[in-house]
């Protein structure tokens, strides 16, 4: 028995592997994760069985329904939490994650909270010759193992990694220079995020010297159009590499007005050769493969792993014992729970939730580092601050993890060397690999260098947002039907009340306050009489109108803390939010035609 479960002025090039010859053959492997004796197999109960391999300490779930068996790892797809029995499930088919209360129906291997979201990876269940059971995992070959290279000695200064700010690193790799995710000026997520660190004064010159840039995904703290606009003014043809995600990273390039002409879209899991010593490979995220990526850079056999913001980078399969690993660590990159109110969302509950979640994230990152055993680990991609005065509440409540706390936790459980970066600090990889105690291994910025920003130029960016408030579009109430018809989300039982507000989330004088019934995409005056989930979304008028006018994704609202939300019942509607945050049309609404019809 075997059971298994583009844009004007820009050039987009879809690239394959640089190397013309075929990669060496690497075969799929099968791993026995758990072996049940005939008696243990015979004693399996109908429904859910929680199992553990006593030798490895790993946990599994096996679901039995008469003669049918399905199995999976006892590990939530979200952030690796442990499943337990769901006491609210009377049918004996679902389990609940102890981290974020995600729920999995193990009879179908589909997640039911969030509804309509993900499927669990299944294991193969096989009967052995003695009527025992084997839980097997089929492991495809690791793409980074193709054409393996042995590490060569590195000269001092040959490989240097300089931290600029947030997720931006400047890598010197022999005679090539590569930059990750340059966000170095302006805000991210409309007006909600601002840089915590003061970038080195020569950041633009550094970008201009780069031979290539990697941008991991479309979020504006990684794809920063204000930064790229300054770069394009000097080097519009600089090669920028992105993964071939379902939603193109540069989907909004034409709207941005930034003139970049050399964007290269590369397939996942294929080495891209830069020169004889340098190559890189982009991998997708296991939870958000439609938009998120990570990267492996290899120079003379030494690997640098940057998992960026990926929730489950490459589905959890990553190279071990790399020379340098960097990842996010801070938390707080979401409107949940700070922007929620009503029901359980008291200030006390939110404070306790944030404290608990940050601790879980620290433990998760520490465990990941312990499992992968890189020589050096660097926490980054979490250095932002809600600095605009109107977001004082978010700044005070959205507590983030301390990188030093994570590094101390890592050092308690492993021999991994850790690096808490400061703007302009440079790590010499050759020195650090040879002797981590070398005083020249990490060169800190000169004494007196400004580390933290204490002022931000809000004006130009707020002016752009405020310009949308008086746009002619919003003189006609029919914009509401036009916009949501364009958005294309319907046939889903959810009613949303949208309220335009001022800075303090009080109704904006003369602003719109309307209902959208997404079951039939109607706009009723009152909530329908049928049973339906309900959400109330208050949005600052400048940001919501800017988003609507330009056909932007709702990350600017939600991740940018520009909304306040209530929901009944307290359920995360994955299909709704995923659509408005990721799946909106690639071109904005045709407001020009709309206005003609309004005349």
UniProtKB/TrEMBL annotation:
Its EC number is 1.14.18.2. The keyword Iron applies. GO terms for molecular function: 2 iron, 2 sulfur cluster binding; CMP-N-acetylneuraminate monooxygenase activity; metal ion binding. It is found in: Cytoplasm. Transmembrane segments: none annotated. Pfam families: Lactamase_B_3 (PF13483), Rieske (PF00355). Residues 36-134 form the Rieske domain. GO terms for cellular component: cytoplasm. Pathway: Amino-sugar metabolism; N-acetylneuraminate metabolism. Belongs to the CMP-Neu5Ac hydroxylase family. Sialic acids are components of carbohydrate chains of glycoconjugates and are involved in cell-cell recognition and cell-pathogen interactions. Catalyzes the conversion of CMP-N-acetylneuraminic acid (CMP-Neu5Ac) into its hydroxylated derivative CMP-N-glycolylneuraminic acid (CMP-Neu5Gc), a sialic acid abundantly expressed at the surface of many cells. This is Cytidine monophosphate-N-acetylneuraminic acid hydroxylase.
